[in-house]
Amino acid sequence: MRLNLNVNGRAMTADDVWEGESLLYVLRERLGLPGSKNACEQGECGSCTVYLDRVPVCACLVAAGQAQDREVGTVEGLADEEELAPVQRAFVDEGAVQCGFCTPGLLVAADDLINRVPEPSDAEIREALAGNLCRCTGYEKIMAAVRTAAERNAGTGISGSTGGDRE
Ligand code: FES
Ligand code: FES
């Protein structure tokens, strides 16, 4: 099948796609967007989290055919040309990245949270990130990064996300 979708604001097409292959495979192997990571391919780790029609999903669990004519936002779309998104800057500033394998999925999940909930509580942050597993950290720096991102986001009113500017 020919797959047409909008990724990070750009119309993209992939040919010879099998309907049952995953959206993650399409993004990484057919569209040259390797930011979303494949760690478990079973919906368990969240490293493949992307926005699908502005809702975070595990791209490894979305069949390519389900993405036909829909809007996808990946970690590559979080920053604009000039600067990092608030979540990206905060992860750097708080040292929340070690090996980085979980980071793309965490960034999308955190970006979604801070754009839905301007002042998230620690419980809300934990709940929002519950589907994203990090093998490297004790999560404290990740928590700190999301708090910092939320504070900065609330302070500027800027949404850096592809998917978080919901109406
Ligand atoms: S690779 Fe998709 S949830 Fe782990
Ligand atoms: S930073 Fe290594 S898995 Fe999270």
Structure, explained:
The protein is 32% helix and 13% strand. By secondary structure, it is an alpha+beta fold. The protein has two domains: 3-77, Beta-grasp domain (Ubiquitin-like (UB roll)); 86-153, DNA polymerase, domain 1. Strands 2-1-5-3-4 form a five-stranded mixed sheet, with helices on both faces. A hairpin with a 2-residue loop joins strand 3 (49-52) and strand 4. Helix 2 (86-93) crosses helix 5 and helix 3 crosses helix 5 (140-156). The mean pLDDT is 92. One FE2/S2 (inorganic) cluster is lined by residues 38-41, 43-48, 58, 60. InterPro entries: 2Fe-2S-bd, 2Fe-2S-bd_dom_sf, 2Fe-2S_ferredoxin-like_sf, 2Fe-2S_ferredoxin-type, 2Fe2S_fd_BS, Beta-grasp_dom_sf, Diverse_Oxidoreductases.
